[in-house]
Amino acid sequence: MKHNLHIVPHEDGWAIRLSGTDKPLSIHDTQQAAIEASIDVAEDDECNVVVHRRDGTFRNVIRYEAIERRLADEDKNRLLGASPLVWGVFAAGALAGLAAILITRPPAQLRRWLD
Q1: pTM of the model
Q2: Tens of pLDDT along 42-57?
Q3: Tens of pLDDT along 31-43?
Q4: Which residues pair with 24 in a beta bridge?
Q5: InterPro entries this protein is in (predicted)?
């Protein structure tokens, strides 16, 4: 790890800065937007993100390992397909299809129960 990224207060919102520099890499309206943008940079540069409060004091550190783990989890979820909503729609369609088959061509045992 060469350096840390710092999320610090800025007159225009929140800035992302490299350790030991005063010039911001980028400026964002909210701290959350700055954190999200810094995670992309941290992933590429393999560095930690140090988050500061509005008064400049230390808040927390987002370690590179945690960023890497989160991105790996997101990749796994992407490989499994779409969101839980899509899986729910798929399951509902499968159940509706099964119900339609059972109604139009019920098995012999079900026909006996219905008679």
Answers
A1: 0.60
A2: 888 888 999 999 998 9
A3: 999 998 998 888 8
A4: 17
A5: DUF2188 (IPR018691)
